[in-house]
Amino acid sequence: MGLEDNLKWLRQKAGLKQKELAAAIGVVPSQISAYEKGTGRPSYEVIIKLIEYYEIRADDLISRDLPTQGLSADEAAQTATLEKVVWETKEEVEQLVKELGDKVTKDQLADLITDLERVAPDQIKSFREKHDI
Length: 133
What we know:
mainly alpha, 72% helix
């Protein structure tokens, strides 16, 4: 399974016809057909429109096998939203670390990161490594 299967699956789960999706993202229906058949590849601009339209991460759209993961389109969108919030939180924590400088101890920061780690272990692991926490 690849990008073409994910595109078709997402469109069908959303209850859209190819022409409806095409109109929503600004392409012609024959392009949607080609993407779903694997005879055409969407440009980066079209991929951006697709991930924004479906509210899904680019790597999920391109590299995951969405139809066999058992996620509904809504669940995939909710997962993407949660991951976006986690990354935004990570960025906010990084900004806070810069602003606080020496005002916060590594132990205090480690406690905060441990709490966040329960929600997003992979993202927090990379944060810990980056900041040697």
